[in-house]
Amino acid sequence: MITSNHEFMKALPIIKKIQEAGFEAYFVGGCVRDALLNKEINDVDIATSAFPAEVKKIFPKTFDVGIEHGTVMVLRKNETYEVTTFRTESTYQDFRRPDEVVFVRSLKEDLKRRDFTVNALAMDQEGQVIDYFGGQNDLKKGLIKAVGSPEERFFEDALRMMRGVRFISQLDFVMDNETEKAIHKNHALLEHIAVERIQVEFMKLLLGKGRQKALKTFIETELYYYCPELSLYKNELTSFAGLEGQIPTQLAAWTLLLAFLEKSEDEIEPFLRKWKCSKKEMQRVKTAYIALQQRLKAPLTRLSLYQSGYDIALEVEAMLPFFNCESDIAYLEEVKASLPIRNKQEMAVSGNDLLQQFNAKPGKWLGEALDAIERAILLDEVVNERDQLLDWAHSYLKKKRDNS
Ligand code: ATP
Ligand code: MG
């Protein structure tokens, strides 16, 4: 399994070097799980019995990223590798992070504190899998099952409950009964977890292959109740859970969710702010949401393509099948090619031109006039050519004066 995988092969010298120095070192966690499932591996994690200071002595180039958690970043041939000391987490008081990290020399102790059996696997340099908790069997069964007592594990770290439903979706697995019961019983602990961390898991859930199943569990265990802005939307979430097909992007995930929650345009930003989305993301989602609503009613227009931008318009086309509408990329390309301008900079007159031409002072009127000209160009009311635009602006401003 190691030799057939480029990521493992690249990282193998790191493991060998640690062993030559007299310590144990293994591949652990998600990379072993994904390799056994014949999936592509994201990042290779290495766990070792060497303490951080010992790891730093073995390699000439290291960085102390996350050293307080026992992780040393090793730089080798322009690539970085995370090497983490075996550890147990002693006492948890606030349901989210261990009070202190305790380094240990035993692999088994390290694997015991991991969240699910399929994530508690290790692999040595020969490709031998080390499996103390039946992880390989659960991989075969397609089961997400807590390591040890599920309730204790969720008390230690409530984020694990969200991780559990996220893995149902990502791996297209189902949840073990006891584990699911423990989540239901303790779902309120999610309240202690930072929204940013919940968001990461929720997004992975929405983008996974098993989203429908995962959302069903997310609703049944009542985890949704402690996620921002979802507590009153059980019915809407349930119909969202019935939606078929894998969601392609994070933008599509937010936009589809908002559509199922039947949010108005004005509610989008407050909703996403509660989820701690960035300003940029809020804007992109709102733009996509407006474009989607328009597109569901009518074929694409130049104006709406211009307003959303090509990239978002393309994403909106990909969302149409979720509403039983056909996407029409060829027409999108046609409209794009026919756009007389792609942005304000391409207009043949500028704000300065208008100020000079009309010998006027800047003010609110100027922005409004530029917006009106832009719109007129896109609606083919005037050609994007300087003299014609100035003529058009002249009659526009005259009409405005006459009306006021
Ligand atoms: P992904 O493909 O999303 O990276 P992953 O399983 O690698 O999946 P990570 O968040 O990268 O997930 O974590 C790496 C490993 O660390 C996990 O496989 C698991 O063994 C352990 N782990 C991560 N978070 C927790 C947690 N909250 N509680 C217990 N173990 C955890
Ligand atoms: Mg990972």
Give a structural overview.
The chain is of the alpha+beta class and 404 residues long. The chain folds into four domains: 1-141, Beta Polymerase, domain 2 (2-Layer Sandwich), CATH 3.30.460.10; 148-245, Hydrophobic Seed Protein (Orthogonal Bundle); 247-339, Methane Monooxygenase Hydroxylase, Chain G, domain 1 (Up-down Bundle); 345-403, Serum Albumin, Chain A, Domain 1 (Orthogonal Bundle). It is built from 20 helices and eleven strands. The strands form three sheets. Strands 3-4-5-2-1-8-9 form a seven-stranded mixed beta sheet. A two-stranded antiparallel sheet has the order 6-7. A hairpin with a 7-residue loop joins β3 and β4. α14 (279-297) runs antiparallel to α15 (302-308). The mean pLDDT is 95. Magnesium ion is lined by residues 30, 42-43.
Topology summary:
Layout: H1 6-20, E1 25-28, H2 30-36, E2 45-48, H3 52-58, E3 62-63, E4 71-76, E5 79-85, E6 87-89, E7 101-103, H4 107-112, E8 122-123, E9 129-130, H5 135-141, E10 143-144, H6 150-156, H7 159-171, E11 174-175, H8 177-186, H9 195-207, H10 211-220, H11 234-241, H12 250-260, H13 265-274, H14 279-297, H15 302-308, H16 310-319, H17 329-337, H18 351-358, H19 364-378, H20 386-403
Parallel strand pairs: 2-5, 10-11
Antiparallel strand pairs: 1-2, 1-8, 3-4, 4-5, 6-7, 8-9
Helix pairs in contact: 6-8, 7-9, 7-10, 10-11, 12-14, 13-14, 14-15, 14-16
